[in-house]
Amino acid sequence: MENEKLVNLAKTAMIHSYSPYSRFKVGAAALSDEGSIYTGCNIENASYGATMCAERVAIYASIAAGNKNIKKIAIVSSSDKFTYPCGMCRQVMAEFMQADGIIVLSQGEETKEYRIGDLIPNVFHFSN
Ligand code: THU
């Protein structure tokens, strides 16, 4: 039920994807430990490096609203295959999710679930 709601919100966010260069649409919905949900889509730029992934848009929206603990994030895309988060998004997820935080991938009628701790083992954390 929770997954279905997140996936549906991610699909709605994907409608707003700005992806004229890759024509690859992505949507994401991040659930905080307080129960609030923030969504994102990928936003590309003519200067390709300025492109932002859907997952980070959703996570950063949550941070900006004051919710720094994400417990689950759903990801959908326009591809006919499951879309896994890129390395940079995994690193950002690891910053704001516990190792047992869940990533839900949806494609067609199927879903897959992963723990962020498994998608980015031995993650870099800064300490001094
Ligand atoms: N993209 C995402 O939004 N999330 C990912 O995890 C991988 C890639 C976007 C960035 C770019 O707009 C397009 O997909 C192709 O790389």
From TrEMBL:
Which residues bind substrate per the record? 42-48
Q: What are the protein's UniProt keywords?
A: Hydrolase, Metal-binding, Zinc
Q: Which Gene3D superfamilies match?
A: Cytidine Deaminase, domain 2
Positions of the CMP/dCMP-type deaminase domain: 1-127
Source organism of the structure: [Clostridium] fimetarium
- Highest taxon in the source lineage: Bacteria
- What's a single GO CC term here? cytosol
UniProt name for this protein: Cytidine deaminase
